[in-house]
Amino acid sequence: MAPKLITLLCLGFCLNQKIGTHVGAQDKFSLSAWPSPVVPLGGRVTLSCHSRLRFVVWTIFQTTGTRSRELHIGLSNNITISPVTPGHAGTYKCVGIYKHTSKWSAESNSLKIIVTGLFTKPAISAHPSSLVHAGTRVSLRCHSELAFDEFILYKEGRIQYSQQLDQGMEAGIHYVEAVFSMGPVTPAHAGAYRCCGCFSHSSYEWSAPSDPLDIVITGKYKKPSLSTQVDPMIRLGEKLTFFCSSEISFDWYHLLRDGVAHGQWLSGGQRHSGAFQANFSVGPATPVPGGTYRCYGSFNDSPYEWSAPSDPLHLYETLRVLLCHSWNPPMSLTHIILKDSPAT
């Protein structure tokens, strides 16, 4: 029998029998997953062993309690799993035999492989808003109609498990939810968040991920200014143009109405009266785009970190409404009043 084959057979036997002399802890392997240890059902993941020393044989195995199942034995230090099934969810480790002494390495770190997509996705929302000023607090709410035992919030590989679940009724439908509190927020909290749900009897098998929720941290840069046409009387059916100006040459300008994105503009270096300016056209004004508008600036290399908001610009829906209520808006605010077009 070939020497390499004998070595492989001996390795498998020794692993199952827990026999062997180990190399020192300083030679311990590390095990990693690419592109991520959180893998969608039917997806693809590569597990790789890493060591400073040279080994002739590598093995990667899945552990369940005190039992081990060999997934790979060979000369290669990695294995690709595709397509991923629920059976691949669990904890993995790797070991190897040193080239010159035939001694075992110590076991690698434990690597948890999570399989997602086994249940319907939950919903995620931010309160009071997904736009959060630096130094304040925000709560992320993850909820589902399925009675999950736990919710998991994650962003770019950082995972947080729920500490407590609440239950309730909404529109006659029972739901469970978890609330994740964050803050005082810093730029490190910025990014796209998702959440999943799981049951206690299968903690490595998660639901499909929620839709992404972008948490944007504001206040990093000086606020821009927001203005519109000089004529405060805009007829219905006409376009309304907003001007967002700043001393900083931002890569992006964002216009929000009542806290909701209403447009964004990629800067081309346009200058107006010594300032950098982005123009947003809204309308034709049918229906009338009333509300409170603000604009922000940001850069390509930090898309979730925005400037402080501009001062608010309040747009009132029609002149007729204001006259009917006989109400005078406060002078400290900027107002644009839309006038009904005459009947034809």
Automatic annotation (TrEMBL):
The keyword Glycoprotein applies. It holds the Pfam family ig. SUPFAM superfamilies: Immunoglobulin. This is KIR3DX1 isoform 8. Keywords: Disulfide bond, Glycoprotein, Immunoglobulin domain, Repeat, Signal. It comes from Pongo abelii (Sumatran orangutan). InterPro entries: Ig-like_dom_sf, Ig-like_fold, Ig-like_Receptors_ImmuneReg, Ig_sub, Immunoglobulin_dom. GO terms for cellular component: plasma membrane. Residues 34-116, 127-218, 229-318 form the Immunoglobulin domain.
